[in-house]
Every structure is written in structure tokens, then in C-alpha cells.
Amino acid sequence: MIGVSNIMLIIVKERAKEIGIRKALGATPFSLIALILQESIFLTSISGYIGLVASVGVLEGVGFLMGKFGIQNEFFSRPEIDVQLALAALCILVVAGAAAGCIPARTAANINPIEALRSE
Fold first, then answer.
1. For residues 25 and 44, what is the distance between their CA atoms, to the nearest angstrom?
2. 91-109 burial by CB neighbour count: b if 16+ within 10 A, else e?
């Protein structure tokens, strides 16, 4: 959550001019908050999916290597991922990403358009 929040704060600071133009043209604070929250949810969804796929790959690799070397361990005999647990973890990650995007979204909504356009 801290990483996503920091990334989103940096994005808001880098795009201050764009946000200022949007506000000057009549964008509502809700539309700016929705924009930043959508970006943070998208970022956490993609990274969570990539992490899930990578973890499945690692477990398959470990299972293959254990079978290749003949390692028979009761606890590690067949590593697997429970689909319901993985989807629950992904949902929790998306909710955490949305929560992490709230502070940067409020920052974006409170940007003064004149100051944002004046800054470089």
C-alpha cells in the first residue's frame, strides 16, 4: 500500500499541470478522484495478477525439480495454490490499492488550477 501510494503521489505531482488544465476546463473533484483511483486500482490489479502468475510458475518449477531429483517430502510433495484463496488475495490487494490511492486522489482534487499552471 505504501508503494502504490508513493507512486500515485509522484504521478499526481508530475501531472499537476494536466490536472490544473482539467480543473480549469471544468472537471469536478469527483472526476479527478475517480481518475486517480482507477489508475491505482489498475496498477494493483496488474501487479497482483503478475505476482499470482509468477508464484504459480515458481511452485510448478519447485514441484518439477523435486520430482526430477526424487525428493519425497510429506509437506512439500505436491505444491499447489488454492484458487479461491488466490482470488481472495487478489481482491484484498485491489481494495488495498484503492485505499492507497485515496490520499493522492484528494491531493489531485485540491490542486489549485492557477498554481498548477504556473508551476513548472
1. 30
2. eebbebbbebbeebbebbb
At 47-62, the pLDDT tens digits run 999 999 998 898 888 8
Give the pTM: 0.81
pLDDT at 76: 65
Phi-psi region of 96 (alpha: psi -120 to 50; beta: other; left: phi over 0): alpha
Nearest alpha-carbon partner for 43 in 72, 13, 8: 8
Return the residue matching grid coordinates 490487494. Answer: 93
C-alpha to C-alpha distance for 33 and 10, rounded to whole angstroms: 15
In the chain the first and final C-alpha atoms are separated, in Å, by 29
